[in-house]
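User: Hi! I'm working on a homework problem where we have to compare a predicted structure to a textbook description. Could you give me the structure for the chain below?
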Amino acid sequence: MNIYDFDNTIFKGDSSVKFIKYSLIRHPFIVTISIFKGFKEGLKYAFKKSNLGLVKSELFSFVKNISNFDEYMHKYVLRHQKNIKKFYLEQKKDNDVIISASFDFIIKPFCESLGIKNVIATKYDVRKGHIIGVNCKGAEKVKRFNEQFKNVKVDKAYSDSLSDIPMFTLAKKAYLVKGEKLSLYQK
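Assistant: Happy to help. Predicted structure tokens:
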């Protein structure tokens, strides 16, 4: 089994930022309001009076106002499928696990289109417009992996960021990803 971060690892860029840009063109009013709410929460976060999960929750609160959301996401994924990196497509396996801090409503449709069944991401209630639980980042990725996969050996872990060092501890080998280039991370 191999585990992968999503954004900037197997996906070129940040899928959440691309989703906001995509939505801003189609729903400028509601997205602008959410960006403003996210900015306000971000200021609180800067002064340690909020948390990253609340910032992200406010920033994406517009999704509850998008009708035919599943169809909307399908169109978004079709438009951005080209951002899946070649190195990943060439080595993809059926039992891969994607672990991401991005929201599940963004990551899961991409993974479904790739035939990836194992997805761990930050949970978000699109009907109510808020985060569920804790942001899936750093040590939280390890916690969630261990909850879902007990006594499973991980061969390789891949990420673009050193914030995923906790995730690297799950694997025999870990790789840092920059573009299409992989370099072995020395634990």
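For your comparison, note the following. The domain at 2-185 is CATH 3.40.50 (Rossmann fold). The beta strands are 2-4, 97-103, 118-125, 130-132, 154-159, 171-178, 181-185. Good luck with the assignment!
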